[in-house]
Prior knowledge:
- By secondary structure, the chain is of the alpha+beta class.
- It contains seven helices and four strands, in the order ααααααβαβββ.
- The chain folds into three domains: 31 residues; 67 residues, no CATH class; 106 residues, no CATH class.
- A hairpin with a 2-residue loop joins β2 and β3.
- α2 crosses α3.
- The mean pLDDT is 85.
Amino acid sequence: EKVGEDTAKRVPMDSRVYFMPEILTRELWYVSALVAILFGAAAFLYNAPALEPHANPLITPLHTTAPWYFLWLQGLLKVGDKVVWGLIIPGLLTGLLLVLPYLEVGPSRRYGDRRIGLSAGALSVAALAVLSYMGTPYYGVTTSPDQEAVAELLPQTHPGPLRSAPWEDLTLGSYEAAAWSSAPNATLQDLLHEFNTSLTTVVSPDRTDVAGVMVIEDWQADLKKVTLRVTWTNVADGSAGEFSESVYLHRDGRYGQGA
């Protein structure tokens, strides 16, 4: 339609539906019904997963990320100075978003009449998508490959395969990842096979003789200590390298082990 031309269809008075109270009442009923359905599903249908480990303010877990709606902000933190890109720039962007309706005012919704505003909006959406990707662990994050290998079985942000394994199947002993097929049960074979596969990331031109070991010990009554150990030889000087991490698993743990 032309700018300034009103082409709205005229509706007779007796056929009009007014926002107050008809539409507002209807929308309130819809929202109430949806909330009731969500409450019912949360109370009777949805089984919440186990809580994650307690947060340690001194340790940042591998690949921890912000909620999806803040990934763009985490991506900005990887660009440069934390104060500038993590505080000042987001503050300016938020302020710009608040005043944008007063800066970009147009009488028409046609793209030809709002090229600058609509183009800026499209570029903003694209920038948010790129920054959100930059906020993920797949961009600009360097970690030690031995820690990555252990984190496959023993992640720091969720239970993972080892914690979720049946407690009774964690047979006491020491097992080499390369000899996963000789483990005493299928659970250990699967865990060791995954461990052995993840060790391929540790192999590099500056590391040789990479090996992985899983040690399961009877620590206390109904409590087992499981240690994942990665060893290698540094090519540069022939020195030995090692990384290990341990976890304590109780028979009555809430990660899915036991009955």
